[in-house]
Structures are given as C-alpha cells and as structure tokens.
Amino acid sequence: MLALQILIDGFAISSLYALGAMGFTLIFGVSGVLNLSHGAIMVLSAIIAWWAADLFGGNAYIGAAAGVLAGLITAFITFRLIVRPIQNSRAIPPEEKEIFVLTGTLLWGIMIQEALAHFFNNTPKTVRPLIEGVTQLAGVRTPLNEILTTVVSWAVIGLLWLLVNRTRMGKRLLAASMNPRGLTLLGFELSSVYLLVWAIYGVLAGIAGVLLGAFLGVSSDNAGTLTASAFSIVVLGGLGSVSGSLMAAFVVGYLETLTAYLISPTIRTVPVLLLLIVVVYVRPQGLLGRR
Amino acid sequence: MRTSYLAALMGGAIGLALTAGGAEAADPIKIATIAETSALGGVGIPNAAKIAAEEINAAGGVNGRMIQIVEYDDHNSAAEAVRAFQRAAQQDKVHAVIATYISEVMLALEPWSGRLKMPLITPGAASNDITKRVHDDYDHNKYVFHGYLASTQIADSVCEGVKKLAVGDLKMKTAVVMSEDAAWTLPLDEEYLKCLPKVGLKVLDHVRLSPDTTDFTPIFNKIEGQKPDVIITGISHVGVQPTVQWQQQQVPIPMIGVSSQATNATFWKDTNGAADGVVFQMVSAPDVAVTPKTIPFAQKYKDKYGSWPGYAGYTAYDDVYMWADAIKRAGSTDPDKMVEAMEKTDYVGTIGRINFLPKGDQFAHGMRIGEGYITGLMAQWQKGNPVTVWPTKVATGKMAFPSFTKLPQ
C-alpha cells in the first residue's frame, strides 16, 4: 500500500516538476538564456489565476485561462524589457552578456515577487481546481485534481515534443539551438525564432504555475525556490537537454517523495541537494548532457 | 518606513513653524512598529497600532504629548529587523518598540533591547525563550515584554479546549501532533505531549514538518496510517497549503489546534473555502466580546482596512495603550521608569485583563494566563466565517465538520 502510494504521489509531483522545468530548459537550449525570473513568472500565473477565478464568481476555467495568459504576457515583457535590450546592447561586451542576462532576470524576478507580495500579500494562495473530489486508484485515495495535474502535464509535454519534432516551426527551434548562425545564413529571422520560443515558454510557465497553484498552492515567497528547483532539475538532467530534464524531474520527484515517506518530511529536499552536489562533482554535464 | 511617518514629520514641521515664537509644542511620544508588512498577519501590527494612536491622540494624548507610530518593514528577516531596531533607537529616537510575530526575529531583537535600553514588546511571537531570557538575566533583558502567550501557554490553552471539544463532545481518544519545525513549536510540542494525555487524548505520533513544505500528501498519508481521531496542529509559517490539501485529499481526520494563518480574515478566500471545519486557537475573535473593547476594535479595524484583524492586530492595539499607560504612570519616557511602570500594568485590553508576571517567574514579563486574565478561545471556520466554539460561555456556535471527515461513533 505504501509503495503504491509513493508510486502515485511521486509520479504526480514528478510530472509537475518536469513541466515546470521544461520551459526553463527549452529557452536555455534555444537562446542560451538562463531565465532566473522563472519561478516568479510561475507564481504570477498562479496568483492571477486565483484572483481572476475569484473575480468571476469562482469560475475555475476563466481563472486558469487568465493565469496562462498572464504567464504569456509576462514572458514577452521579460524578453522585450530585460533580455532583448541586454542582448542588443553595444555597451556590454559579448562575453559578459550571459552574466548580464542572468543578473537582469534575477532582479526582474525579485521585482515581480515583491510586486506580488505588495498587491496580494505573501500568504499562500490556492488556485481553484478544475475538478474537485477524490477517487480510488488501486486502493489509494487520490484527488481527481492530482490526476488532472498529471494528465495535463504529460499532454503539454507531449504537445511540445510534437511541436519540436514534427513541425517546421519546431525544426527551426531545433536548428536555432544547434547553430543559430547557420539558421540566419539560410535566411531565417533569428529574432522571430526567439519570439516564438518565448511565447512557448510563457505558455509552459503559465500552465505549470496554474497547475502548481491548484495542486499545492503558491506564495510570492516561493518564487526563488521554484527557480532553484527548475535550475537543479535542469543541471541534473544536463543543461539544454529536454529529455535529460524529464528524467531528472522524476529523479527529484521520487527522491523527495521517498524521503518524505520513509525518512522524515522535515528533510524532504536534502537528499536531492546532496545528489546535485555529487552530480556536479562526478558528472558536471548532467545525466544526459552532451558536453 | 511608510508615508505616515513622513506625513507626521511634515505635520510636525508645520506645527513647529506655526508655534514658533509661542510655547514650544510638546515632543511626540514615538512608538516604532517592526513587522513584515507584506504578510497579512504582519501588516496588522502597524495598522492596529495606528488605530490605537489615533484614539489616544483624539483623547488628548499622554501627559499632553501625542503618540506617533513610526513603521518599519523587516521583510521577515532578523537582520533587517535588527537594523530597523537600531535605526529606531539611535536615529529616529523612538521611546518604545512593538515588534514582529516571528519568534526567530524577536529572539534576534531581544539582546539589542538590552544594549540600547529600548523598551520592546512583541504582539505575536511565542517562543518560551523570550521570557526565559528575561528571567535568566533580568538586569540586561528587563526592557523586553511578551505581549502574546508563550508556546507552553498556547499548548495548555489548546489542551483545555480539546478537553471539552474533542474528548468531551466528540468522544475522541487518540491524536497525532503535527507541527512545523520552528523555534516556537519546540516548547509547544513538548507541552502538547504532556498535556494531551492528561486531558484524555493518547498521542500516537508526533510529526514535525519543514516550514518550507509545499506537498503535504506524504504527511497526511503517514498520519492517516496511524488512524488517530484528531490531528492536533502547531502551524504558523504554513497554513493555507496544508488546509487546502487536507480538503482536496479528503483526509478524514479533523484538524484542531494552532493554525496562525487561519486567524486571518482572508483565510477562507485564500483556501477557496477548504478551511471549512478547521478548528484553531485565538485570543480574540471579532464575534466574541472577550472584553468590552474587543468587538469595537475589530469593527473599527475592518471599517478602516477592509478585513478583520489577525491575531497580532488585537495585541498590537493593546500594546500601544499599555506603553502609553506606562509612560503616563511613569511620568517620563525614561526606559527604566517605563519598565518599572509596565511591570505594574493592570490593563483590560481587547484580549483580556493583562498583568505581567514578576521577574522571579519562569515566564518573567510574560502575561498572566488563566481565569480572569487571558484564557484563549477556539474558533472554527464554518461557511465562510470563523465561529467561536469554546469556551462554552462565550461560544457563538457549535462545531460542524465537512462530510469527508470521520468522527468517532
């Protein structure tokens, strides 16, 4: 029974982690940007979903849509206002641009977090779930919302896979991640590729935020932890490797769940951090990293 | 620091200009509030303090001097709180400080209160160490007062409530204690483990969780595996998330105990109504006339700020009155004289009759607890509102639990 419980809960949380990390790794893979405002964008989406649902008489669907839209808009603003100006700046030497983007997005994330704390205070909020109630999964009482979270996470990851591997648009993204110069030489506008990847990123972060808000609840204080968690998963999986991130999300999700069930919930995240240190020492390129 | 301080400064400057040449206007009595103002519970501290100051000023002030509240935001950081405290004492020259509902922050401020001889009271932190330090080193720490119950006292108050509500009314026999890993819950849990068996609840397990926990599924599953009749809570840093997950997962065991976030008026909305059935400890509630001052204050707070005050709002309001009263009786803002006067406090506030325990007591400068002083209440969220369910003589309703919970037959 306990094993089954760990299996189900671990799967749900891992799927959500995977979705959360997906956008983060995609944007690094395609445009080389480590977006440290990631957690803040997820939290913003969740809080907007909570707020909009309440505004429209508790309509969970309007809330979820508003949350995802907020993620998309914020991703665009992040790109236009923070990332683009740094990338285009002539004053910043090219070799320092990555650090500037890192710092810029970090500070932007803090600004979003503080703004959320100011307008909505930092008490956690929970997004109204799309479906309520529980069901028995092989004898384990499981909330329907947990099942929905898992299904939506996988559906979105699946769609992303299709988009990247089966469409012209996706091939352009892949090409940009491998050889951006080659892509420009073929006559493609690199900036439109970047705009596309930020749009995809915004939707992914928005959905992940809304699901997280409905499954576990979020507070503006969680922004940093969420970025760190996505970062850890991506480093563990190998920077820029989508399948690596997927695998790492499951390692992290199950390790945390096992620790919480079998050792103590107080030290839930400790083994993951230890593992991360070991990986950085022994296999710095991550589980499926190429370098 | 917020605009009220700037406004007061400007007001002061204009006042000075107007009275120039005439009699010198009496300096205001400055009371600082240090709290995390982005947290709903935290912002209640300056908000409530301002209401008290306005009332005192409208009634003529203290010995002809007006009360001025100087606000600082500590962002829930001990380091920032200490900086704010130093600035309040050395630069802004305040006369007393009302600070924080976080024990870790209060414990960081406490030594500075002694060093800078700055009278300090906390309206919400609960650690037993706050008063223990006063007891152990009175000469250095005598400037510190505890304006809220110590953790041990909170646990005792919960046990009293549980005795009637869980053991008496619901015939419960077993419990699991679930509390967060923080300074204030160490003595709380210790006392829970002692007092729960005494009131008739066998403690099957004691689960401590990290205050950073977001996924409570494993914790609830573990607790459910023990088959207790009730979960006795000790949570403050977490609250919304465990409550929502308790409801979403339909954990069939009622939760009764300390849940600080549940004392916030917005708890129902923050949890989308998952709070239904949660029983929590408070010292005051907006629906109970603990004293004749409780309801008028809560109503005034709601009219001004749009929601009921959290638990530290009531106490912060009382704290301003108590400092004002102490200064009035001392006839001075000399810190030693203020402390002496504060020790003789006998004040009926919004939370009950407040007396501070003498220096020889293990809770030196803590509040006297018990019948006729501070007793505590148990309230339950029901259909969007907190309903007081204990003590019986002030209860405004009976307990009701959501259908997914299983009560002993």
Main β-sheet of chain A, in a few words?
2 strands, antiparallel
Percent strand of chain B equals 15-25%
Oligomer state equals: heterodimer
Beta percentage of chain A is under 5%
What does this structure look like?
- The complex is a heterodimer of chains A (291) and B (409).
- Chain A is mainly α.
- Chain A has helices spanning 2-31, 38-55, 60-88, 97-120, 144-166, 168-178, 180-185, 190-215, 223-237, 242-263, 270-282; strands at 134-137, 140-143.
- A two-stranded antiparallel sheet of chain A has the order 1-2.
- In chain A, strand 1 and strand 2 form a beta hairpin.
- Chain B has 14 helices and 14 strands.
- In chain B, strand 9, helix 11 (267-270) and strand 10 (279-282) form a beta-alpha-beta unit.
- The longest helix of chain B has 20 residues, at 311-330.
- Residues 9-24 of chain B have low confidence and may be disordered.
- Classes of the chains: A mainly alpha (291), B alpha/beta (409).
- Chain A binds chain B through residues 2, 5, 9, 13, 54, 58, 114, 117-118, 121-126, 128-129, 132, 134, 141, 143, 145-146, 216-220, 222, 225, 256-257, 260-261, 264-269, and chain B through 36, 38-41, 43, 181, 207-210, 212-215, 217-219, 221-222, 225, 238-241, 244-245, 248-250, 261, 264, 266, 269-272, 274.
